[in-house]
Amino acid sequence: MKRLTGSAKVISAILAQEYAAYAKTQDNFDDIVAEIIKNVRKDGDKALTSYAKQFDNMSIETFEVSRETIDQAFEEIDPEVLVALKNAKRNIESYHKHQVEPGFVDAKTDGVVRGQLVLPIEKVGVYVPGGTAAYPSSVLMNVLPAKIAGVPEIYMVTPPQEKFNPAILVAAALSGVTKIFQVGGAQAIAALAYGTASIPKVDKITGPGNIFVATAKKQVFGQVGIDMIAGPSEIGVIADQSANATYVAADLLSQAEHDRLARAILVTNSVRLADEVDLALEAQLQTLPREAIARESIETNGRTIITESVEEMFELMNELAPEHLEVAMDDAISYLPKIKNAGSIFLGHYTSEPIGDYYAGTNHVLPTSGTARFYSALGVYDFVKRSQFTYYSQDAVITAAKDITKLAYSEGLQAHARAIEIREGVNVDD
Ligand SMILES: NC(=O)c1ccc[n+]([C@@H]2O[C@H](COP(=O)([O-])OP(=O)(O)OC[C@H]3O[C@@H](n4cnc5c(N)ncnc54)[C@H](O)[C@@H]3O)[C@@H](O)[C@H]2O)c1
Ligand SMILES: N[C@H](CO)Cc1c[nH]c[nH+]1
Ligand SMILES: [Zn+2]
């Protein structure tokens, strides 16, 4: 991988420059996606049919996946995959149940009740990627937290396929999706945001996808809610001389194989480890069925950053704010307090990132492109909203009236003051 060495300050400046160059390349995607969204708003299903032909090479007239096709998937699924899906489902549910927020009532002051209701969002659209790989695991990661939150209508979209991987449809049925539509890319996001004759308009869209999907979610934000920018996968590994180079290379490649635009970054204070990881990467790349994708990702976006100290390893990784962060060091748990920005953290030599992709129960829909500075892993909290409520008795209003009216007059807002004064019995015509 391309190597960056020097002081943390120098490397940080190089990374900032590289990021600025990368951000510029986004302009092109912005324009392509804006055009797709405009056409879906204008032509609805007709545009979806035309994009399915153009981008997925499929002739699609009916977007909803039929009950018979889903039933057939249960006949076809490998029984061991079915068991694994059910075990993953159990782990995802048990982890996400901790995220349920109860709301509260505060009634300590006489005549005053305040509180917060936590209410499920009513209609959610979940994107399940399916361009170059199938993602049944992403079905579970999107839908199960929505179900736990109590969302009544969950619409799943995924790119059309000549023949669906049965696990995608089975995962959708097991987790309780309302309807599945075969439509992918930016056009699927536009359809969920604005609605078409076939696809319902939803309140919020969640889920990961490639650069077209991530850019479309950014562009429809405001028309609908979105969970985050969950674009091409990323992995950052912090490793010292105690790390196993073969393991580190395998984990870097686990994310590189997702997408040519995926990003794998090793930060280490050991030149020996960096050299060994480079050798292991080459050896393992040659054996991967998705070598072309992984190689392009590693050669274009992969970086090995060599620092002088452990402190600098964490400082630089916190600046990168990767989607996934592995700490491949002895006593890894003790470094947790040094981590400020990362979507999902994997601690220790044996905690390989794919454990989280499939099985641990933590969510794999995660913020990318440095947005882990302010976004979190998808969770039950993404599928609810909070409504405040207030009750004041007449006595309570009279007690509070002086403060409220003073504040209203100080803002020059007489109608606000009047709304209180008439409840105190003041004659507002005076
Ligand atoms: N961040 C996360 O949480 C997370 C989780 C899982 C997967 N991912 C990412 O999801 C992505 C999956 O990508 P994918 O491509 O396999 O599936 P995808 O479903 O995201 O994208 C496929 C769709 O992209 C559209 N598309 C392809 N080429 C296009 C073009 N030239 N112009 C316009 N639209 C085009 C097509 O509509 C196609 O159906 C990867 O980037 C992977 O890293 C991210
Ligand atoms: N690593 C992906 C998130 O970036 C999730 C995933 C699903 N399947 C395999 N991996
Ligand atoms: Zn993965």
Automatic annotation (TrEMBL):
Q: Which organism is it from?
A: Pseudolactococcus plantarum
Please name the HAMAP family in this protein's record.
Answer: HisD (MF_01024)
Q: Which GO terms describe its biological process?
A: L-histidine biosynthetic process
Q: Which InterPro entries match?
A: Ald_DH/histidinol_DH, Histidinol_DH_CS, Histidinol_DH_monofunct, Hstdl_DH
This protein's cofactor list reads: Zn(2+)
Top-level taxon of the source organism? Bacteria
Catalysed reactions listed for this entry? L-histidinol + 2 NAD(+) + H2O = L-histidine + 2 NADH + 3 H(+)
Which residues of the sequence carry a binding annotation for Zn(2+)?
255, 258, 357, 416
Query: What protein is this chain from?
Result: Histidinol dehydrogenase
Family, according to the entry, reads as follows:
Belongs to the histidinol dehydrogenase family.
EC no. given is 1.1.1.23
Residue positions binding NAD(+): 127, 187, 210
Q: Name the top EC class.
A: oxidoreductase
Q: Pathway of this protein?
A: Amino-acid biosynthesis; L-histidine biosynthesis; L-histidine from 5-phospho-alpha-D-ribose 1-diphosphate: step 9/9
Q: Is DNA-binding set as a keyword in this record?
A: no
Q: What note does UniProt attach to the cofactor annotation?
A: Binds 1 zinc ion per subunit.
Residue positions of the active site: 323 (proton acceptor), 324 (proton acceptor)
Q: What does this protein do?
A: Catalyzes the sequential NAD-dependent oxidations of L-histidinol to L-histidinaldehyde and then to L-histidine.
